[in-house]
């Protein structure tokens, strides 16, 4: 007889344990299924499975998603935008604030909190009713040596001393230091982590290449020059309590650097950026460097995962879409072309072949100017 066809000892009774085990396994499966189904439906705390109850991508329970949202809301940042009352600054501030509000209203904009334009011209201007503004004094006459950016750290010192921000109720409050030529292209989360601020690394801020100058303000006993981050003050997301310590030092170092001929000649228009980096290092603060914080056309050609377009450079192209940097192009967009007035509505779009970063920038300026009242007046 084929061994496989022979009965096992005990006959039919030997099959009973197998049946029992199968029933136990099935019962365990049903219990496990119901348990995990309950968890992923929010343990009864949220709506049933469906578009409103479960994240369709990662199947995140409602209660878990809500908890994550609460964490974001506990870490909002307040935007502090330093500016002057010049027409050149005003139109950029209007575009910047327009897109800030747009991104703040989108999903993912929960961390984007209040907004203050810190106006360091000493008197109100025509944007007071459009953009939340806090007026501070400029430096005493002649103290900026014709370098208006020196007013930025002094503006922060005054604002931090006098202003109260709603975000202070959350983890001591965070501040995003921003500039008029920043355009938000998507909602910005809080990139800082507790006492580690987040900053953008600039390729032209190179402390290690200027150690002899950096050591005038950051002596050897303080640590290696690499403690000085390759950053400026903007964009930076930082705890308010940290910035309150750094800002007076930043102001003093800025003035000292400007009054030192060698430092002034070497650092030029980025002197105040170096001053912030040095001041931070003097207080033992180093930043999380986020290259995705922003892009700078025309050198950055793609949007990628960035949050901000910084339009500090001129964008010059031939009608064939070729960059002609250093030479005025047949098509161009340069903020410096609009020193005493805003750019006209409906700017001509770049020719075919121009990178998406530049095309996106011009489209966003056009949308803002089309929707902002009295644009041509410049307010």
Automatic annotation (TrEMBL):
Mode of membrane association: Single-pass membrane protein
Keyword Glycosyltransferase part of the UniProt annotation: yes
Taxonomic superkingdom: Eukaryota
CC terms in the record's Gene Ontology section: membrane
Hydroxyproline O-arabinosyltransferase-like domain mapped to chain residues: 77-376
Keyword terms of this UniProt record: Glycosyltransferase, Membrane, Transferase, Transmembrane, Transmembrane helix
Nucleus keyword on record: no
GO MF, one example: glycosyltransferase activity
Subcellular location per the Swiss-Prot or TrEMBL entry: Membrane
Pfam families: HPAT
InterPro entries documented for this protein: HPAT-like, HPAT/SRGT1-like
Name this protein carries in UniProt: Hydroxyproline O-arabinosyltransferase-like domain-containing protein
Organism: Eragrostis curvula
Phylogenetic classification of the source organism: Eukaryota, Viridiplantae, Streptophyta, Embryophyta, Tracheophyta
């Amino acid at each position: 007889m084929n061994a496989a066809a022979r009965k096992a000892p005990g006959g039919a009774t030997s099959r009973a344990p197998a049946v029992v085990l199968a029933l136990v396994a099935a019962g365990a499966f049903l219990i496990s299924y119901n348990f995990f189904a309950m968890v992923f439906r929010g343990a009864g705390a949220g709506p049933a499975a469906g578009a409103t109850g479960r994240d369709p991508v990662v199947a995140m329970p409602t209660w878990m998603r809500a908890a994550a949202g609460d964490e974001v809301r506990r870490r909002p940042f307040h935007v502090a935008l330093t500016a002057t009352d010049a027409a050149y600054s005003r139109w950029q501030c209007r575009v910047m604030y327009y897109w800030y509000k747009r991104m703040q209203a989108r999903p993912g904009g929960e961390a984007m909190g209040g907004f203050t334009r810190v106006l360091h011209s000493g008197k109100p201007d025509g944007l007071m009713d459009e953009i939340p503004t806090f007026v501070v004094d400029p430096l005493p006459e002649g103290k900026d040596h014709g370098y208006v950016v020196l007013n930025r750290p002094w503006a922060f010192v005054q604002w931090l001393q006098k202003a109260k921000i709603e975000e202070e109720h959350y983890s001591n409050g965070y501040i995003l230091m921003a500039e008029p030529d920043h355009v938000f292209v998507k909602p910005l989360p809080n990139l800082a982590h507790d006492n580690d601020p987040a900053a953008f690394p600039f390729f032209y801020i190179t402390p290690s290449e200027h150690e002899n100058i950096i050591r005038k303000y950051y002596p050897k006993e303080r640590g290696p020059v690499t403690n000085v981050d390759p950053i400026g003050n903007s964009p930076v997301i930082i705890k308010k309590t940290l910035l309150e310590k750094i800002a007076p030092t930043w102001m003093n170092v800025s003035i000292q650097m400007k009054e030192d001929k060698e430092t002034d000649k070497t650092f030029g228009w980025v002197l105040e950026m170096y001053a912030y980096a040095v001041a931070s290092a003097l207080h033992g603060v180093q930043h999380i460097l986020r290259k995705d914080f922003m892009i700078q056309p025309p050198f950055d050609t793609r949007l990628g995962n960035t949050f901000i377009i910084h339009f500090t450079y001129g964008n010059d192209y031939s009608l064939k879409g070729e960059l002609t940097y250093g030479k005025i192009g047949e098509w161009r967009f340069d903020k410096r072309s609009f020193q005493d007035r805003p750019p006209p509505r409906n700017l001509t779009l770049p020719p075919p072949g121009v990178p998406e970063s530049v095309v996106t920038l011009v489209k966003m300026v056009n949308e803002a100017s089309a929707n902002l009242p009295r644009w041509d007046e410049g307010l």
